[in-house]
Amino acid sequence: MQTRNPLLNDFAELMSDAFAAAQAAGDEAKTAFKAQMRRALAEMDLVEREEFEAVKEMAAKARAEADVLAKRVEALEGGAKPAAKSGAKPAAKAAAKSAKPAARTRPRSASRNPPARKAAKPKKD
After folding, report:
1. Same domain, yes or no, for 51 and 87?
2. Residues 49-67: b if buried by 16+ CB within 10 A, e if exposed
3. pLDDT, tens only, 23-62
């Protein structure tokens, strides 16, 4: 329903212009915010998703290869392992476990903070 009232037409045109200006200001604010966020993220030195996924895939492959090699080493050393598993300890490990650390002569705190020495008093004759 259109009116022929020039006052209402002017008001409607003013509101349309105001709405367009508000929308443009909102778009400009959004663009400025995005630019600010890009700058902040660039300063943080973050990795991109593609780069992260590539490194993650490489790590998974390396882990799989390490598992395969560990199984292979275990299979190759299979002949030497049963003697160690039977309860006989290698001489170096047995000696290391039986050796006791030397006892401390004074507590740690005393060695870090020696007691303050008193000044010598002159002897009276």
Report:
1. yes
2. eeeeeeeeeeeeeeeeeee
3. 999 999 999 999 999 998 888 888 889 999 999 999 999 9
Q: How much is the pTM? A: 0.35
Is 8 or 125 the better-scoring residue by pLDDT?
8
Assigned domain for 39 exists:
yes
Query: What's the pLDDT at 53?
Result: 96
Residue 117, CA distances (Å) to 106, 113, 114, 120, 121 in order: 18, 12, 9, 9, 12
- Give the count of domains, the chain: 2
Instruction: Say how many CA atoms lie within 13 Å of 89 toward its Cβ.
Output: 8
Q: What is the DSSP string of the chain?
A: -----HHHHHHHHHHHHHHHHHHHHHHHHHHHHHHHHHHHHHHTTPPPHHHHHHHHHHHHHHHHHHHHHHHHHHHHTTTTHHHHHTTPPPHHHHHHHHPPPPPPSS-HHHHHSPPPPPPPPPPP-
